[in-house]
User: What shape does this take?
Amino acid sequence: MKRWWMAALAAGGLLVGCGGGENLPRGDGMGPRTPDGDVGLPGEPQAPDTATSLWPLTEGSVWVYDIQDPVHGRFQKHVTVDGPRDVPGAPAGTTGVLVRSRQDRVATGVLYEEYSWQAEQPNGLVVRLREEDHRDGALVRTTTWSPATVKSLARAPSALPWSYTNAVKELTVLGDGSQEDGDPTYAWRVVEMGVTVQTRAGTFTNAVKVRREKLNDAGEVKEGKERTYWLVPGIGKVREEGERTEDLASYDVKK
Assistant: This one.
């Protein structure tokens, strides 16, 4: 039987914290590691509750964002959930939820598309298993991680403060076949809950404000590598600030 979590195992394991089941991990825990360095999956995956999920992965859901980018100018991003799909390059039977992003970067005349295979885990984190970047229809970059890297939160923590550190090995294969290795570390932190945020799609009063920071080898935040997300239960990301600004223009989340 195909299982979404098999993709996390195929990607080399999953970072988990102290918590499991219904709760998010409690603060910076990296989870128990197996002898080969991977992290085991905590229990059976659970069906996400779309009404409360901060990152709905229901098939057919669509979000449109207004983007303001310092390099590519102003344009829109259309995000669509295609549903469970086989993960390319992974063992047979390995699946993730395919999320497609299409960006018509009008200032530079580039059509940028991203294919992202994601999975929600029992501990409330959403992980990325594989991403492919396409420019004007041509595959230019494929990225995988070991362990699978955190993409977002699907559930809010029961209390603050809450933070989580995600250290991974990153492999990037460029369109010409050349490879690049990296070992990025990201620090995630829930800044505030019950936040009011205004977007073109409306005003939301129950957002969870999340900060993601990329760290250097000394554990310090890299300048210009901070992102702040506003996540709303049942809707997902409604705003992002940092390296660029994303503002929710419209959405259609399937139940």
Summary: Residues 201 and 250 are 5 Å apart (CA to CA). The chain has one domain: 5-252. Confidence is low (pLDDT under 50) at residues 1-23, 26-45. Residues 5-252 form a domain with the YmcC-like fold fold (CATH 2.40.360).
